[in-house]
Design goal:
The structure holds 2 protein chains of 2 kinds. Chain A is an alpha+beta fold. In chain A, about 30% of the residues lie in helices and about 25% in strands. Chain A has helices at about 15-25, 35-40, 80, 90-95, 105, 110-115, 125-130, 150, 240-250, 260-289; strands spanning about 5-10, 30, 50-55, 65, 70-75, 135-140, 145, 150-155, 155-160, 165-170, 180-185, 195-205, 210-215, 225. In chain A, strand 8 (about 150-155) and strand 9 (about 155-160) form a beta hairpin. The longest helix of chain A is centred in the last third of the chain and has 27 residues, at about 260-289. Chain B is of the alpha+beta class. Chain B has 2 domains: about 10-85, Roll (Ubiquitin-like (UB roll)); about 95-165, [2Fe-2S]-binding domain (DNA polymerase, domain 1, Orthogonal Bundle). Chain B has 5 helices and 6 strands. The chains are: A alpha+beta, B alpha+beta. Chains A and B meet through strand 1, helix 2 and helix 5 of A and strand 1, strand 5, helix 3 and helix 4 of B.
Chain lengths: ~290, ~170
């Protein structure tokens, strides 16, 4: 399996990269770590005319900490982020990274690349969605920030336009008294999840929910948030956990495949949602104390 | 100046391979694995699945274990590359890791072994005292169909144990 022929450009700056994208449009494709795109190129699932290699751009390799978010540049590798202590500020990102691929693929794979690829079972899109994060897109003409919930459209499909480059992912800093949890069920270590779930729970001093965000991946064409609006201001009793488990199984459309039936995935969606909310709740409580 | 290479053009790729400056030509679509084997004739690196799953083609690029089927040669221009050929100074002077693989039956056909060895080099440099769970997590990036992994885990554990007694 060899990639179809492509021309290669290697920009040294974001300006050059978006210039090349603007010039080539749908014929151009950005490669960062290439741990998803490389396989798609070799299998000729994608055949861009021009490959735009952003790996040598300096300005995208940084992690910047602002007062309310951590900004992860387009070429920040997963292994480097995992080793960076500043990611304590974004515990859900830290918790999800060890589940992404393998030791060897994390050496080269990037956080933004996984988000750009938008596999419906992937961990980082789910974590970004549950964190309430967003994606910074740049074209020759403008920069815009798109919330994760609007960014992920469908399988391998995002709101990114053909002339736009993802220059960074923006991860909100966890608020005080917040607990988080990330869990996935997969047949083998390093596989994409059959079902993955993530939760963030923020409590007030009276143990009531200030914010509850729960999401699932592997259960449809994109990661989804479970409806939790009715639980705000409540205490997370066993009844509420039951309701979360029920809500998680509603409105999802998992596939049948060789690994798991749709029925099994639906069942697991409830189990996993309950598990991550419970774990996040306990972490939030220990943070309050 | 932005580098631009057309699909049919060959570019001179310069790398340091196991400490030696090497050069060869590649079109943009040539995988780094194919460049190492067919252009530089370094056949120690094996090519298995060609889509980033099996780990057979893993080498160290600037010190990091990377699958060379998921990288194009043109991306590696200027890189420092270490492959299995760089481990033993001669066939009868294996590294401690290679000797432990031999002793613990950590290979049978040997197809996956070069990649696994190169992952181990980085892994053990970063974590001199890994536990078995960490070893297995690292190994999950490699497929071996002969050994059932047990001998590989034992070999790595032996190297770790020997290192800790010799430094104690």
């Amino acid at each position: 399996m060899k990639a179809a022929p492509f021309s290669y450009v290697r920009p040294d700056s974001i300006a050059e990269a978006v210039g090349a994208l603007g010039q080539h449009g749908d014929d151009g494709r950005i490669i960062a770590g290439g741990q998803s795109l490389g396989a798609m190129l070799n299998m000729r699932l994608v055949m861009p005319k021009v490959l735009i290699d952003i790996n040598r751009i300096e300005e995208t390799s940084r992690i910047d900490v602002a007062f309310d978010h951590v900004r992860i540049g387009a070429t920040v590798r997963q292994c480097d982020a995992m080793a960076d202590k500043r990611l304590h500020a974004t515990p859900l990102l830290s918790a999800s990274l060890p589940h992404v691929g393998h030791y060897q693929t994390r050496n080269r794979g990037t956080i933004c690349g996984s988000i750009a690829h938008a596999d419906p079972s992937a961990e980082l899109p789910l974590a970004l969605l549950v964190s309430g994060g967003s994606v910074e897109l740049r074209s020759r003409k403008k920069t815009r920030v798109v919330a994760a919930n609007d960014f992920f459209v469908s399988t391998l499909t995002t709101a990114r336009l053909a002339d736009e480059m993802i220059v960074a992912a923006l991860w909100p800093t966890a608020k005080p008294h917040t607990g988080h949890s990330f869990a996935e069920f997969a047949i083998r270590s390093g596989d994409y999840a059959i079902v993955a779930a993530a939760a963030e729970v923020q409590l007030d001093s009276d143990d009531r929910v200030v914010r509850l965000s729960v999401g699932l991946a592997g259960i449809g064409e994109r990661p989804v948030l479970i409806n939790t609006a009715s639980f705000e201001g409540q205490k997370l009793s066993a009844d509420v956990l039951d309701a979360i488990e029920t809500n998680a199984r509603q409105g999802i459309d998992p596939v049948n495949d060789l690994q798991a039936s749709a029925q099994f995935r639906t069942h697991m969606a409830g189990v996993m949602a309950r598990h991550v909310v419970f774990e996040a709740l306990n972490r939030a409580r220990s943070d309050v104390l | 100046m932005m580098l631009e290479v057309s699909a049919e053009s060959e570019m001179a790729i310069r790398v340091t391979l196991n400490g030696v400056a090497r050069e060869g030509n590649a079109t943009p679509r040539m995988q780094l694995a194919d460049f190492l084997r067919h252009v530089l004739h370094a056949y120690g690196t094996h090519v298995g699945c060609e889509h980033g799953v099996c780990g057979a083609c893993t080498v160290l690029i600037d010190g990091r274990a990377v699958r060379t089927c998921m990288m194009f040669a043109i991306q590696a221009d200027g890189a420092d590359i270490q492959t299995v050929e760089g481990l033993a100074s001669s066939p009868d002077k294996l590294t401690a890791l290679q000797s432990a693989f031999q002793k613990n039956h950590a290979l049978q056909c040997g197809f996956c072994t070069p990649g696994i060895l190169m992952s181990c080099v980085q892994f053990l440099a970063e974590r001199p005292q890994p536990d078995e769970a960490e070893i297995r997590e690292m190994l999950s990036g490699h497929l071996c169909r002969c050994t059932g992994y047990h001998g590989i885990v034992e070999a790595i554990k032996e190297v770790v144990a020997d290192k800790s007694t010799s430094s104690a």
